[in-house]
Design brief:
It is a single chain. The chain is built from six helices and five strands, in the order αβαβαβαααββ. The chain is of the alpha/beta class and 185 residues long. The protein has a five-stranded mixed β-sheet with strand order 2-1-3-4-5, covered by helices on one side. Strand 4 and strand 5 form a beta hairpin. The protein starts with 5 loop residues before the first helix and ends with a strand. The mean pLDDT is 85.
Length: 185
């Protein structure tokens, strides 16, 4: 698949503007009939497309994407959206190429360790050891995706900043078949 350039994206945007229809306004965010109730946290890997996977339409769900789809580095985002919108459910979505056996996996977060990332940064940006040590990259230890999903659900359950009434769900999507494996219902 060829890469896309910024000028190409801007040209596509012009076509988008021609058919654009606005969603609700921020002031309407707490209107439970028009705003999202589901928050999806997933990997930034471009093969993972929650909008297509779940046939989402504008405003149906909020989506947070980061390396490995881990909630810890997205905590402030999670707190903000669950405070401002009537979110009732959080879906954690990790990915693999081998469901139901998630080892080995095709997620980039299984190909590095926290320490290897920090060491590369120390070499590239010397003199920032304290700041680098505080960073979290979302390593999936041993490639165990089921464990990472369970750990992420536990992180949300035990965080004093996350609303305890939220329903938490965890899945692994197979990037080859598109199928979901339920880890936490």
């Amino acid at each position: 698949m060829p890469f896309v350039t910024v000028p190409e994206l801007l040209a596509r945007h012009e076509k988008y503007v021609d058919t654009y229809t606005p969603a609700w306004k921020f002031a309407e965010l707490n209107d439970q009939s028009t705003t999202p109730h589901v928050l999806i946290i997933t990997c930034l890997d471009p093969r993972i497309e929650p909008e297509r996977m779940f046939d989402l339409h504008k405003g149906e769900a909020s989506v947070i994407r980061n390396v490995a789809g881990r909630p810890e580095p997205a905590l402030t985002d999670i707190i903000a959206i669950t405070t401002l919108a009537p979110i009732t459910d959080i879906m954690l979505l990790h990915h693999s190429a081998r469901i139901p056996n998630p080892k080995p996996t095709d997620c980039g977060a299984t190909h590095f360790t926290e320490q290897s990332m920090k060491q590369q940064l120390r070499e590239r940006v010397p003199g920032h050891d304290e700041a680098i040590e505080a960073l979290y990259f979302g390593e999936i230890v041993g490639g165990d995706l089921e464990r990472s999903v369970r750990d992420d659900v536990a992180f949300l359950q035990h965080s004093p900043f996350v609303k305890q009434e939220l329903r938490l769900h965890g899945y692994i999507v197979d990037v080859v078949t598109g199928q979901l494996q339920t880890v936490v219902a």
